[in-house]
Amino acid sequence: LTPVGLLPIAVAGFNIRELIKGAADVLSLAVGNRGKAYRTGGDEFMAVVHMDDPESLRNLIHEKTKDWHGVYCEKISVSVGYAALKDNTRASIDDLERKADADMYAEKARYYKESGIDRRRQLFEKGIGQVK
After folding, report:
1. What is the pLDDT of residue 9?
2. Would you call 68 helix, strand, or coil by DSSP?
3. In 3D, which of 55, 117, 115, 60 has the Cα closest to residue 81?
4. Which has the closest alpha carbon to 10: 42, 55, 57?
């Protein structure tokens, strides 16, 4: 049986159609015949893959996003997490998804910290959230 891995992916930025389409294209190219990528809602996707090394797919997704350029958006940024069944042999699919999501949110937090972007400030300025 081929190892299974889950890779949740979140697009950085707001729900802009071009970014969503770009992320779908990037994921389709990166995942290829290793599995399937699905849009799970808003700016989030999930890839279900059959491979030994999901970390290499995470790196490939990041490489492909660097090559992407849109008409209205200059670049696309994504946060990619993963959890592999081979590393979590007793995990249910729900447990695996939670681990993968936690990994994605950790990568997302690193992205915002390293880029100096205050996500709460962005949301406030768009009238979506509150700054504490």
Report:
1. 87
2. coil
3. 55
4. 42
Residue 73 is predicted with a pLDDT of 87
- Residue 132 has a pLDDT of 44
Say what the pLDDT of residue 27 is: 95
Mean pLDDT by 10 residues, the chain (132 residues): 77 80 94 93 91 88 93 90 90 92 92 75 50 44
Q: How far apart are the first and last CA of the chain?
A: 49
Strands 83-84 and 35-41, bridge-based pairing? unpaired
124 exposed, middle or buried (CB, 10 Å; 0-12, 13-18, 19+)? middle
Burial class of residue 132 in the structure, from the number of CB atoms within 10 Å of its CB (0-12 exposed, 13-18 middle, 19+ buried): exposed
CA dihedral 29, 34, 40, 44 (to 10 degrees): -50
Rounded CA separation 38/24 (Å): 8
Distance CA 84, CA 100 (A): 8
Provide the residue type at 31 as one letter.
V
